[in-house]
Amino acid sequence: MDKMKVHNLNVIYNKNKILKDINLDFEVGNIYGIIGANGSGKSTLLNALTQLINYTGDIKIGDIDIKNMNSKTRARKISYMRQNITPRFNLNVEEYISASRYPYNDKENLISSKSSMIKYMEICELNGFKDKNILNLSGGELQRVNYCKVLSQGADIILIDEGFSNLDIYFQIKFKKYLKDVIRKDNKIIIMVIHDINFALNYFDELIVIKNGMLYDKGSTVKVITSEMIRDVFNVESNIVENYIDFSFEEGE
Amino acid sequence: MTDNKFRVTLYICIIILIISILFALISGHTNIFLLSKEIRKIIIADIRLPRISLAIFVGIALAISGHIAQILLNNQLASSSTLGTSSGAAFGASLSIYLTLKSGIHIPPQILAVFFAVITIVIVLKFSGMKNKVDPSNVILAGIIVSTIFSALITLIKYFADEDVFIILGYLMGSLDKVPMDQVVVFGVIVIAIYVYFYKNRKTLDIMMLGREESILLGLEYDKLFNVYIMIISILVGFVVSLSGIIGFIGLFIPHISRSLVGSGNSRSLVITALLGAIFLLISDTITRAYLPHQIPVGIITTLIGGIFFIYLLISRRDTYG
What we know:
Oligomer: heterodimer
Radius of gyration of chain A: 19 Å
Order of helices and strands of chain A: EEEHEEHEHHHEHEHEEHHEE
Strand content of chain B: under 5%
Number of helices of chain B: 13
Structural class of chain A: alpha/beta
Shape of chain B: globular
Largest interface: A-B, 31 and 26 residues
């Protein structure tokens, strides 16, 4: 497993620069958080990393530019749980999750595919859901299914865009703990877009702050999260007391 | 659970299809049991069998093309007519009938129908695509626009056709009349080949149901496959329209029923869609051919039933989603 390097990443959409000269290194065994205001380019960054949109610049895993990777090889290297996935067809939960094994779709891998799915369905507590129609799931249940799907894909790099927003606290805590304690230790790179800064404070190895499509700051959470940054990026006043941030909001300028 | 349900549905569909075939063979304005053996043989083998076979193959072709179109457009209310290909093919076929009437040289409608179906889809993809990127909602919009333009052109041909307009009109209404057995056989081979192709790619279709982004994330070359699949169903629709005119709504509601019976997984739904398409068109055609006065074109019946189903679908969707 190699680290991922982003060099001079630019994304232009309808003549607007959405991302400008992003340079980032992602080390193996680390969990990264990305924060920023709405529309700052967080999701765009993840979309570029997974080849969903056009960009200029280099994104390399080890020495290989992911643009040059075979599409199935890429899917074994990098997976992405997008925000607000809306299924349109009535597959059952098991069928839906089994899509995650498509990149491995040859017959030799059938057994490992099955066991990978079973393992993660257990962790996401989805065993009672196997035959349920995905169109009938609640928002939170669908997020559990999609989380299970992204883990079951077994990629080295896992991207999650606000993936836990509809989960109850039991699953929020369980999933976040599992990512940090188990998946990260498995020599993976985890990158999460998140809005809860209080949570970010104690969770990530490194935090990336994006403002107006540019890299505002990166580094350890303690270094990055300051009242000044919160004012600059989110336009909110704050008071950081030990491991807790107290926000206040003032109207007008 | 699902496997059992699928097996039961499959057997019931096969039994219904066999019964419909037998029912169609003995149905007609002449009672075959009163005829001599030789004449009975001629009526069954030369008149009823080609028509029954055509109904089955056209039913399968329409249902499968709708089934695939719905997956590609990520929309269960889409069909091959949403793509504009039916109108394009109908224009091609009308043009060849018109030219044949005017010039006296027989121009087979198949050639122009398939040609214009392909032209239509190329135009639709050109309009809707942005730098090789496929956007289903743009495809639907472009399909409707191009379809409208071709409808206007068909009207233009009708206008020029003068007193011959009835030939084109009757043709466009959608009927399974007067197609010789050799053409039915060729068409049947094409339909079965295309069906087998899609069935072999059922896993890919399963992934494509998750949409473009999810497919790409799972390592599927979505845009390339999208173009290949959409081209195949357009060619298929071209052939269908050239043989039987426009038979509406089968491509829309048969896949829908199939998915609600056995789920969307294509190892099951593709099979049931094909069978239901065959059953539905065969029964509709038998009723119009043998039991309704004046041999009403079957397209009218399918569109009536389909239209009513469509309204029911909209109402039930509205109720489900508030």
